[in-house]
Design a protein that fits this description.
CATH topology of the largest domain in chain B: Rossmann fold
Strand content of chain A: 5-15%
Structural class of chain B: alpha/beta
Order of helices and strands of chain B: HEHEHEHEEHEHEHEHEEEHEHHHEEEEEH
Structural class of chain A: mainly alpha
Number of domains of chain B: 2
Number of helices of chain B: 13
Distance between the termini of chain A: 25 Å
Oligomer: heterodimer
Largest sheet of chain A: 2 strands, antiparallel
Largest interface: A-B, 60 and 60 residues
CATH architecture of the largest domain in chain B: 3-Layer(aba) Sandwich
Number of domains of chain A: 2
Number of strands of chain B: 17
Number of helices of chain A: 16
Radius of gyration of chain B: 24 Å
Strand order of the largest sheet of chain A: 1-2
Helix content of chain B: 25-40%
Number of strands of chain A: 8
Shape of chain B: globular
């Protein structure tokens, strides 16, 4: 189906199903229970899951296939956001022109940066991309936000004001919308003790992510994808056979840049504000973590990695001592205090620590990321040995 | 995985199930709220969104302690703090409008994006009806915009840039902290008195929005006194070593250095300036001086001995001798063993003010609260007589000019109050050009839902 083989179709439909059913899957605990703290099924976080999923899928096309580790991908996300907000400021709150422009601008930007950076490979490439991204961040943070030429509005972040022209707005809504469908509209469904939220913005982003995932899948399975893998395996040998690999790496770089632009545009579409921090090196590092955590070079991995990191950032950082005390309040006070003191460093402001520990554990014990873990569990269940399932080098002869 | 059989029938079945699932919400949706997150049960939830990681984490944690304390006092626990000294007597110590106060916390990371994500989760997931806190203007403006869209009240924490209640002012947002313009207006006369009216100033400014508005404000008010501005140099926010910026200061013929820096930036630039021996120099026949327009206790602690004699301004200092301040310092000190910081007092006052406005309005509806807060005049929360202006939701009160103490007796009184500048001296018209001029409007209050 859709030009995919059976196995891929299954995987694709699996992704479609978990994405569309996310509001149910992410809210497994009743709203009033103590465990509701761990529910992630609210619009903002679900949007972030899919948007950063797109970002990581795109990054994986570059990193997972060609092995070029870009440390500056957040720059493309950032320019995408700025482009989208400018469209809101100039045209209207309709998200389609905004997203279109953000993809185009990010594509052009990545073409320029990629053209320069891809002259080197390995660590030099990483450092070059990092330098360009930090440069973009500094430009957005201060240079391009001075009062005489204010393109980015600096630290405050670019946002839409009532005094902006918005030439095409007319009587349209004052919120981001898809042809009148407001992005932040949410329907709440109450089923017994459970509460599920269905948000327009989330479903719009989800459709984009499914589409992005499908394209990535086709790229992975195409001759172009094979060429990218060849670059990862041994670029020197490829060059000796007379193939110029740079157009391929540049194409991969631009495609992943456009994915980042799409993600940036969607971030602005769900919340029309673009801040310079989106371009900072920590944001670039985050997408690297997402991809490695989920499993670089796998299709599903980046999405899982993105969800994993965003979950920690948003859920664990909100557990404070009061919450901890409420969990252990049934125990004698001394034990209660003792347990809270032990857990305290790992939650709330310590969420980085927990995430770091998880990252270490995963990298050490599951080198292939979360997908690797899933596969091992699956193999344990089905009783298959690991080697059997390993997709050993493609048996088909190269053309 | 390849064992999974994929049949047409299976697809139709699962497709129907998914379709039914998606159609459900149109059939069953919950009764409408009359405003966002209207509290239905016996409790009301407030959201405390402060930096717990990143460069302003210390300030954030201090804010959180104060907010927790405010909730205790609202619920009638502890010694009641400023409830007794507050000039409005609407709060009874039984929660807000009879509902027990709960709170949720989040980490802004001092990043606009993260702060908005965290505030959104409080509003969407936890049902928070008011967001309070923050330690930077960029975050304050970003979260204020979000609260306006979502239809909840935003009580800004530490934010000093003019924009928060200037061109970015919003109907659902209120600021208790003072701003860069007020710093300039309060400092200038003291500077003139201590240093004379014919000084040559050199500005080092953190290169972002807050830095510029502060530079603009200080420059305007010192030039009005007759000072000359020799040069203004922007320094990158990420700098940790300012030596290369300090060296040219003397050669430029300046005799005052103004450091428009905050937090770690200020600690480093001041330390560099002292190491270069600027304070021991005499230029143009006058002793060289350094001014730090915005001070905080945590910065003073970081800079140690270097701040001795350096002038600056503050929103609040625990050494203030009014009833409200004494009650708050006692309450905070007994709990945490040290006096509260400037930002802690701001958040504490904001939480009580919000609660009081709800009581007086008789509702949690943001529009009612906005109405109750606009033009509200009160006393007894630590800053002396205070009023919230209707036109821009900026709070007006006396501003403190402080100096690094020469002989501090404890590690808590490193700053001494030089002058309490009366509010009349720092008041400006709401359409002042530094505050967005005539174009800036609050918009309409938004109750959401």
């Amino acid at each position: 189906m859709f030009g995919l083989d059976k196995r891929d179709t299954t995987l694709f439909l699996f992704v479609v199903a978990i994405t569309l059913l996310a509001p149910f899957l992410l809210n497994p605990f009743p709203t009033e229970s103590a465990l509701a703290q761990f529910n992630a099924g609210y619009p903002d976080l679900m949007q972030r899951f899919v948007i950063f999923g797109i970002f990581a899928i795109g990054f994986n096309i570059l990193f997972g296939l060609t092995g070029y580790l870009s440390f500056g991908h957040a720059a493309f996300l950032g320019v995408g956001s700025y482009a989208a907000v400018w469209m809101f400021k100039l045209l209207s709150f309709n998200i389609i022109p905004a997203i279109a422009l953000s993809i185009i601008v990010a594509g052009v930007f990545s073409l320029a940066i990629g053209y320069v950076c891809l002259r080197r490979s390995g660590i030099y490439f990483s450092i070059l991309t990092l330098a360009f991204a930090q440069m973009s961040f500094a430009m957005a943070y201060s240079v391009l936000s001075n009062p005489s030429f204010n393109l980015t509005n600096g630290e405050t972040g670019l946002q839409v004001y009532a005094s902006d022209p918005q030439y095409l707005k007319g009587d349209g809504p004052d919120l981001t919308h898809l042809f009148g469908l407001e992005m932040n509209a949410t329907k709440t469904l109450e089923l017994g003790a459970w509460e599920f939220q269905f948000n327009t913005g989330f479903y719009v982003c989800a459709v984009f992510m499914i589409f992005a995932f499908y394209i990535a899948m086709r790229i992975f399975r195409s001759p172009f994808g094979l060429m990218l893998r060849a670059i990862k395996t041994n670029q020197t040998r490829l060059n000796y056979t007379g193939i110029n690999s740079r157009p391929y790496t540049l194409a991969a770089f631009v495609i992943s840049g456009m994915y980042a632009g799409l993600a940036g545009g969607l971030l602005a579409a769900t919340d029309p504000l673009a801040g310079a921090e989106r371009m900072q090196w920590t944001a670039s590092g985050e997408v690297v973590l997402m991809t490695i955590l989920g499993g670089a070079g796998t299709l599903l991995g980046p999405i899982l990695g993105a969800a994993f990191i965003k979950y920690f950032e948003n859920i664990f950082s909100k557990i404070n001592d009061t919450v901890l005390h409420s969990w252990f309040s049934f125990m004698p006070e001394s034990i209660d205090n003792f347990l809270v003191a032990i857990i305290h460093p790992f939650v709330g402001k310590g969420w980085h620590l927990t995430l770091g520990l998880m990252f270490m554990l995963i990298v050490i014990f599951l080198p292939g990321g979360l997908v690797d873990g899933g596969q091992r569990i699956w193999n344990r269940i089905t009783g298959r040995s690991r080697t059997q399932n390993e997709p050993v080098a493609d048996p088909k002869p190269a053309e | 995985m390849s064992k999974f059989e994929f049949t047409r029938r299976g697809l139709i079945k699962s497709g129907a199930a998914v379709g039914a699932g998606l159609a459900m919400p149109t059939i069953l949706s919950r009764p409408a709220f009359s405003y966002t997150n209207e509290p239905k049960g016996g409790t009301v939830t407030l959201g405390f969104n402060v930096p717990q990681t990143g460069p302003y984490a210390d300030e954030g944690n201090d804010e959180l302690l104060a907010q927790t304390l405010a909730v205790e006092h609202l619920n009638g626990e502890g010694d009641g703090g400023c409830l007794a000294t507050f000039s409005s007597k609407a709060l009874k110590g039984n929660g807000i409008l009879g509902k027990k106060v709960q709170f949720v916390t989040g980490d802004t990371q001092t990043k606009s994006d993260a702060a908005r994500a965290s505030a959104k989760s409080m509003i969407e997931k936890d049902g928070a009806i008011m967001i309070n806190g923050g330690s930077s203007s960029g975050v304050a403006v970003a979260v204020q915009g979000l609260c306006q869209e979502a239809g909840v009240i935003f009580m800004a924490g530490l934010t000093h840039a003019n924009d928060t209640t200037g061109k970015d002012r919003k109907a659902n947002g209120f600021r208790h902290f003072f701003n860069a313009y007020m710093s300039g207006a309060a400092l200038a006369p003291v500077l003139a008195k201590e240093m004379g009216a014919d000084r040559r100033a050199y500005h080092l400014t953190a290169d972002y929005n807050w830095g510029w508005t502060q530079e603009e404000s200080i420059k305007a008010s010192t030039e009005a006194l007759g000072w000359e501005t020799v040069n203004t140099v922007k320094t990158p926010l990420a700098s940790t070593d300012f030596s290369s910026y300090i060296a040219p200061v003397i050669n430029a013929g300046a005799d005052v250095l103004v450091l428009n820096h905050y937090g770690g930036n200020m600690v480093n630039s001041l330390t560099n300036a002292i190491q270069f021996g600027l304070l021991d120099k005499a230029v143009n026949g006058k002793d060289f001086k350094i001014v730090v327009p915005l001070y905080s206790e945590l910065m003073a602690a970081g800079a140690g001995d270097n701040i001795k004699g350096v002038l600056g301004s503050m929103n609040y200092n625990w050494q203030l001798e009014n009833e409200g301040s004494k009650a708050f310092v006692k309450s905070f000190g007994e709990k945490h063993g040290r006096p509260p910081s400037n930002s802690a007092q701001t958040c504490y006052a904001q939480v009580l003010l919000y609660a009081d406005a709800c009581e007086r309005a008789g509702t949690f509806n943001p529009c009612g609260v906005v109405e109750a807060l606009e033009g509200f005049e009160f006393d007894g929360l630590g800053n002396g007589p205070t009023s919230y202006r209707k036109e821009d939701h900026q709070c007006f009160k006396d501003v403190l000019v402080v100096r690094g103490a020469q002989n501090p007796t404890t590690k808590f009184d490193t700053l001494e109050i030089v002058e309490i500048t009366p509010v009349s001296q720092v008041t400006y018209p709401p359409n002042h050009p530094m505050f967005g001029g005539d174009e800036a409007t609050l918009g309409k209050c938004n109750p959401g839902a």
